[in-house]
Amino acid sequence: MEISNNQTWYINPNNRALTSNIKNTEIKDREAFKECMQKPLRPVEDLVSVLKTPINLADATSVNRQVNSVTIAEGARIAVNDGYYLVVKSGGVECLGENANPYDMEAYEKAQALAGAFSTLLRNAGGTLHTVAYGQEAYQKWTEQVSSVMQYLDIDTTKDFTINGMKYSKNEKGDWESSSNSIAKAAYERQKAANRTYEFADEKTRKQIAYMSDYYLSTVPEDVKDAWQATLEETGINPFPNGYASTLAQLSVEQDFQTGGNYNIFGDTLESSIAAVQSILERIDNPLAETKESDYENLQNEKEFYSALLANLQK
Fold it and tell me: Can you spell out the DSSP letters for 33-85?
């Protein structure tokens, strides 16, 4: 497939793909698009609001080394490196150097970093801060600093620990993660797996499937639409498991490029619809690039769906 450098391309908001025809940028169903298809990025926490919110602290400071647990109350003082102390307050953790060398900037910066990491840990444990770091490198650094502070409290960081009632464990990347975050991630993964199916998909995903189906089948006869819906219900498979990324979307974009704006691969007859399904199955069996392991299950589900659809269309 050749793409001319002189060609102007646009974003088709209906399927998030490039199109060479500006007419394709018109939203097909504005209300359905607004409700189902807009996917804002995960909002960044309002750090100003977070910092203004008092930390949820314990009533008293205590350390239970037997169960690897610690509670931190306001006023707690933790001796760290080179004569520095971390002093816990409801507004954050301060770093004081009563017996520190004022000219040892390396020691000062280390203590300040520990204060910042511990403050973040306490806010996270108390539920006022959900994101402890942005980026894997920053997350790893935070984990190291948290481990250092907990060791100053004589907490064993080779295993799970609990602070102010929140349990922390190492995740698959070796970073500290709260139990509440682990539970939330597990629930998200379960829902994502459910949304790969039609039968168990949530309401928003079902509306998205309906929107995408209507978009690609807008010109086909009613018996083709009926066969499509019957296939959804028979197989229980979501043919758009990754939203816009599907074999159907790929072939639609390729045709758009080749024809200068015609993305409709199903056409307007039963025969053209059958030919389109056969093309999709051919591409699934003969992908243009090596299939990633993470995409293999989705491709197999697509193959099952379109094989069943082809059978329904040929009845």
Answer: IIIII--PPPPPP-HHHHHHSPP--BSS-EEETTTTEEE-BTT-EEE-STT-E
**The model's pTM:** 0.63
Q: Partners of 78 in the beta sheet?
A: 86
**Nearest Cα to Cα of residue 169 among 68, 45, 72, 64:** 68
In DSSP notation, 179-212 reads HHHHHHHHHHHHHHHHTTBSSS--HHHHHHHHHH
User: Under DSSP, is residue 267 helix (H, G, I), strand (E, B) or coil?
Assistant: coil
- 70, 87 contact by CB (below 8 A): no
State the residue for tokens 């028979």.
234
DSSP β-bridge partners for residue 88: 93
Token pair listed for 219: 């010109």
The pLDDT tens digits of the residues spanning 162-175 come to 999 999 999 999 99
Name the nearest CA neighbour of 298 among 226, 250, 227: 250
Per-domain residue ranges for the chain? 10-28+195-313, 47-170
In this predicted model, what pLDDT tens digit does every residue of 208-262 receive, in sequence order? 889 889 989 999 999 999 999 999 999 999 998 765 568 898 888 888 888 888 8
